[in-house]
Specification:
This protein is mainly α. It has two helices and two strands, in the order βααβ. The model has no long low-confidence stretch (mean pLDDT 94).
């Protein structure tokens, strides 16, 4: 199980540093292939 910080999502979506965005994509692919479980925190809007 791996915790994902918001930075992982932002890095993947913006592709500002391609090498790091590629590493983020690998993390997401592992989750899609059910090789790894990902989680993050949830803060409800008030």
């Amino acid at each position: 199980m791996r915790f994902l910080d918001t930075n992982i999502f932002i890095r993947f979506l913006t592709d500002d540093v391609p090498e790091k965005a590629d590493a983020c994509e690998k993390i997401f692919k592992k989750a899609v292939e059910k090789e790894e479980t990902l989680f993050t925190t949830y803060l409800p809007l008030q």
